[in-house]
Amino acid sequence: MLVLSWVVVGVVAGAIAHLILRDRGYEWIGEMLVGVSAASVAGAIGPVVLGVRTGSVDLLSDVGLYCTVGGAAVALAVLVWLTPRRGGQVSRVSTGS
User: Fold this and answer.
1) 17: Cα separation from own chain's centroid
2) Tell me: the pLDDT tens digits for 20-73?
3) Which helix (H) or strand (E) holds 1?
4) What is the DSSP code (8-state) at residue 93?
5) Measured between alpha carbons, how far is 49 from 68 in angstroms, rounded to an integer?
């Protein structure tokens, strides 16, 4: 059940990130894959690091869901922040020739 929540949260977060990125980024599937990957890593490792769960991924917990949502949100926020805009001005470096 928890693994399914990782996928759902990652897909939803990826779709939202795609709407923010519009014409830049990695298209629908790329943002969704980043969201699912980040949600699954954060959802599996977060509760164990916080000492709430001892490694079982078959139980659905509040902390696991919070870590899942937080991990997907942070990874996609970094993706949106680091993705350059297309069509922007590019500074050209003079080579002196």
Assistant:
1) 8
2) 877 777 888 988 999 999 999 998 888 888 888 655 666 677 888 899 999 999
3) none
4) P
5) 13
Domain residue extents for the chain: 2-82
52: closest CA among 66, 36, 37, 72? 66
DSSP state, residue 97? -
Closest CA to 61 of 79, 81, 47, 76: 47
pTM of the model: 0.77
Count the alpha carbons within 13 Å of 31 in the hemisphere toward its beta carbon: 26
pLDDT, tens digit (0-9, with 9 covering 90-100), for 7-18: 999 999 999 988
Let me know how long the chain is: 97
Of 57, 47, 17, 48, the C-alpha closest to 33 is 17
Question: Which string of DSSP letters, residue by residue, matches 38-94?
Answer: HHHHHHHHHHHHHTS-SS--SS--HHHHHHHHHHHHHHHHHHHHHSPPTT---PPPP
